TrEMBL record:
It holds the Pfam family Cupin_8. Residues 99-233 form the JmjC domain. InterPro entries: Cupin_8, JmjC_dom, JMJD6_ArgDemeth/LysHydrox. PROSITE patterns: JMJC (PS51184). Signal peptide: none annotated. This is JMJD8 protein. Gene3D superfamilies: Cupin.
């Protein structure tokens, strides 16, 4: 399945480049709509530390906490990072439910992963009254998190491509909480009239998506992907 999950026909999320000022970010996006930021940071040094070989050498024996790939992610499983990469990091099985799909995204032990995060250059914008927390993940082709919402944040792709689907807080998407994003894309998405489709776009390495508070979003890794989010809590 690797490489067979499609990108969207047309990106419908607004884009901005390094000319975007902090005041314009606050005025146009921070509290109202998502935006894809390009060229606002240089994480080439961080990316060099996130290759398969470098991550296995640094973190192979350490446990990582996997979550189920459903909206609520109740079940957690701890395995050594090397076991996850070598045995569980596979393309998503379209027939598996979210509760049967384990996914490494964000339950990071900061004692162990802290030195890596110190090399990450976060986006230069903040929401007043919030502080950042990092969430790092590695996932296979076709995997992802189905629709959910939380506070505002940024998400950057380090390797691979990640497709995003977003709805504003007042438009609850139609989905089953235990259906994977891949199953939703295959079964529900084609039935949606154009007016009911989400904002969507595919992020590539070096691109950062900002999503405002309480916006619904689902993700789909189109390739084996490495990514990091900055949650503003």
């Amino acid at each position: 399945l690797a490489g067979t999950v499609p990108e969207e026909p047309r990106c419908t999320v607004e884009r901005a480049d390094a000319s975007l000022t902090y005041s314009l970010f606050l005025q146009r996006f921070a509290f109202s709509r998502p935006v894809i930021l390009g060229g606002v940071t240089d994480n080439s040094a961080f990316r060099a530390l996130c290759t398969r070989d470098k991550l296995l050498a640094a973190f192979g024996p350490f446990p990582v906490r996997l979550s189920t790939a459903n909206t609520y992610s109740y079940r957690k499983v701890d395995v050594p990072f090397q076991e996850y990469v070598e045995h569980l990091l596979k393309p998503q099985d379209p027939a598996r439910l979210g509760s049967d799909t384990l996914y490494f995204f964000g339950d990071n032990n900061f004692t162990e992963w802290g030195p890596l995060f110190q090399r990450y250059v976060p986006p230069p914008f903040r929401i007043p009254g919030t502080s950042p927390a990092y969430s790092f993940g590695v996932a296979g082709s076709g995997s992802g998190v189905p629709f959910h919402w939380h506070g505002p944040g940024f998400s950057e792709v380090i390797f691979g491509r990640k497709r995003w689907f977003l709805y504003p807080p007042d438009k609850t998407p139609h989905f089953h909480p235990n259906e994977t994003t891949l199953a939703w894309l295959q079964h529900t998405y084609p039935t949606l009239p154009p007016a009911q489709r989400p904002l969507e776009c595919t992020l590539r390495p070096g691109e950062v998506l900002y999503f405002p508070d309480r916006w619904w979003h689902a993700t789909l890794n189109l390739d084996t992907s490495v990514f990091i989010s900055t949650f503003l809590g």
